[in-house]
Amino acid sequence: MTKVAFIFPGQGSQSVGMGQEFSETHAGSKHFLEQADQVLNFPLSKLIIEGPQEELTLTYNAQPALLTVGSMIAARLVEEGITPAYTAGHSLGEYTALVASGVMSFEDGVSVVHNRGLYMNEAVPAGEGAMAAILGLDGEKLKEVTDAITAEGFAVQPANLNCPGQIVISGTKAGVEKACVQLKEAGAKRAIPLDVSGPFHSSLMKPAAEKLSATLANVEMKNAAIPVIANVNASVVENHNDIQQYLVEQLYSPVLWEDSVRTLLELGVTHFIECGPGKVLSGLVKKIDRSATVLPVYDEETLQAVIEASKGWS
User: Fold this and answer.
1) CA distances from residue 80 to 20, 28, 104, 273 in whole angstroms, order as listed
2) Helix (H) or strand (E) segment spanning residue 193
3) CA distances in angstroms from 204 to 49, 95, 109, 128, 248, listed in the order given
4) pLDDT digits over 137-172, tens only?
5) Pairing assessment for the beta strands 4-8 and 86-89 based on DSSP bridges
6) What sign results for the dihedral spanned by CA atoms 106, 77, 65, 204?
7) CB 154 within 8 A of CB 199
8) What is the C-alpha to C-alpha distance for residues 281 and 33, in angstroms, rounded to an integer?
9) How far apart are CA 226 and CA 102, in angstroms?
10) H-type helices in 80-216, by residue range?
């Protein structure tokens, strides 16, 4: 039996022109862009469609932009009769999952993540923090190295546990740079700097988490109509009070993506549909379990391919 999960990418997946095809061919999709512009009171849609990439990548722009495009794609899939049994998102993508699961409205989602980005930028201004993907090193050794560098006064820690052999680190620019050198010396195959504007999911984000907590307290949140997998503990969550608390913790805690995917597999999910630009999560799911069916949707062609494939699902 086919069981579907919608999964939503986080920062780093943003690209100029994402969602453009949907907005040009489908009135409902265009409405998401118009709503986002109205909520934020600035032309986010122009930034999404025209760029520049440097401005789109700034965390307070990238977050609402990715949520808008992911929500747009999820709505198209549901309109075509494809509904998920579960949702999950990577970091920022968890908010898109919550919109898709009916926990918060799209308008509130756009507003919250824009503010989340502002708080994150205030906590550590762009350029002072960094993140990097470390390939081919086990988690225990990685943590040993990052703990030692942090003890020297250069904050850095594991941030995203993505899949076997891929862990993202986060911290101060100097801490991440030192860690990249030392982790390669410790046996890592590669250390790849990420295209993000801050040290997300690190202890440096605790001041932002306090502000986010106050913002979320004023947002109407409902219990999930579709169960969500939480980043902070890779478990199923439906209660809106629990979700609110987990979102605050998520800002300074590691994203347990590999464990989240394994939870979905244990729950019987057979098909993962990635709603958003790129194929980052699709690649990670395949590295976690090669037998999983993974379907990225980022343009009209990939959408139509999923609609066609779904006709054979039982």
Assistant:
1) 19, 13, 22, 14
2) strand 190-193
3) 32, 21, 23, 11, 13
4) 999 999 999 999 999 999 999 999 999 999 999 999
5) parallel
6) positive
7) no
8) 24
9) 7
10) 93-100, 106-123, 139-151, 173-185, 206-216
Written as six digits, the tokens of 33 are 């862009």
The DSSP string of 242-269 is HHHHHHHHHTTS-B-HHHHHHHHHHTT-
Q: How far apart are CA 143 and CA 149, in angstroms?
A: 10
User: Which residues form the catalytic set?
Assistant: 91, 201
Contact 161, 255 (CB under 8 A): yes
Q: Which tokens belong to 232?
A: 């902070």
In angstroms and rounded to an integer, the radius of gyration of the C-alpha atoms of the chain is: 18
At 196, the amino acid letter reads V
Enumerate domains of the chain plus CATH numbers: 4-124+204-310 (3.40.366.10), 129-196 (3.30.70.250)
Whose tokens are 């998520």? That residue is 250
The phi-psi region of residue 214 (left if phi > 0; otherwise alpha if psi is between -120 and 50; otherwise beta) is: alpha
Residue 182, token pair as written in the block:
């030392």
Q: Is 252 helix (H, G, I), strand (E, B) or coil?
A: coil
pLDDT tens-digit map of 179-215? 999 999 999 999 999 877 789 999 999 999 999 999 9
Q: Which amino acid is at 163?
A: C
Give the pTM.
0.95
Q: Give dist(CA 97, CA 81) in Å, integer.
A: 18
